[in-house]
Amino acid sequence: MSVNNTSGAISLVCTPPYIVGVYRDGSYGFNLPLGVAFDGSHVWVTNRSGNSVTELNASDGSWVRTLSGGSYGFNSPDWVASDGSHIWVANGGGDSVTELNASDGSWVRTLSGGSYGFNSPDGVAFDGSHIWVTNYTGNSVTELNVSDGSWVRTLSGGSYGFSSPYGVAFDGSDIWVTNYTGNSVTELSASGGSWVRTLSGGSYGFNHPIGVAVDGSDIWVTNYTGNSVTELSASGGSWVRTLSGGSYGFSHPTGVTFDGSHIWVTNPGGNSVTELNASDGSWVHTLLEFNSPWGVAFDGSHLWVTNEGGNSVTEATGA
Prior knowledge:
Layout: E1 2-6, E2 9-13, E3 18-23, E4 33-38, E5 42-47, E6 52-57, E7 63-68, E8 77-82, E9 86-91, E10 96-101, E11 107-112, E12 121-126, E13 130-135, E14 140-145, E15 151-156, E16 165-170, E17 174-179, E18 184-189, E19 195-200, E20 209-214, E21 218-223, E22 228-233, E23 239-244, E24 256-258, E25 262-267, E26 272-277, E27 283-287, E28 293-298, E29 303-307, E30 312-317
Antiparallel strand pairs: 1-2, 2-3, 3-30, 4-5, 5-6, 6-7, 8-9, 9-10, 10-11, 12-13, 13-14, 14-15, 16-17, 17-18, 18-19, 20-21, 21-22, 22-23, 24-25, 25-26, 26-27, 28-29, 29-30
């Protein structure tokens, strides 16, 4: 292994998968980094304790800017999503959502107030025309128009099965929401927000589910307390498999993403990231050298992982 340290970016070369760089000096502004998203050219990272958002160049990990201050409305920012031209940040402590221009990081608007129904917003996802936000304390999900941030609807009530909703993802037609305290997953129709189904029960293996990702045909859910990952069929919500056991290296898994052929899972309890074959769920690698990794995003060639405990971001490429 060789190490190159310049300007706070530590580059490592090792056996596959490769750690490309660890970005962590003070110039990045990382302060409990949590959420991470890719907009086509840049990587955006939320800093929960810093009430800020850091933008990096995906090409080389260099710092672009750190956005902070009252004008942005950041308040314990959690997850973040890109719609291609704008960045959407859920402010868990501020009961609000901030929209930014991806081109220059300028503030567009901060959405707040009772009409939006935000209540400890956590997860955020884009479906092509709308933004979907989970409200952890409110046991609800808010839908927004991506064009102007206007409110579309807030979904709540027992019929949806929301119970501390956390993660959210879009599969091309439906929205999938993890219910942390409900040990369940709710599927909604993206076209109208109608309830499709709520999946629960021991057969699914849900145990405080947090993260959720789509691989095109299947849904992948991380079970934080269960130290496992559940795979579902997107077409009908049927159980495919639950992956668990020491061989996978899962330890309080949180973030999950799809790179086109593999599933990547962050393990903050194990300071590691697990790579799986999307085709059959088999284990490929467990990467070490992380520090409470939480969020993960794929930029088309590289992975970006937030290290909540290390105030850093790791860039890696698969085997």
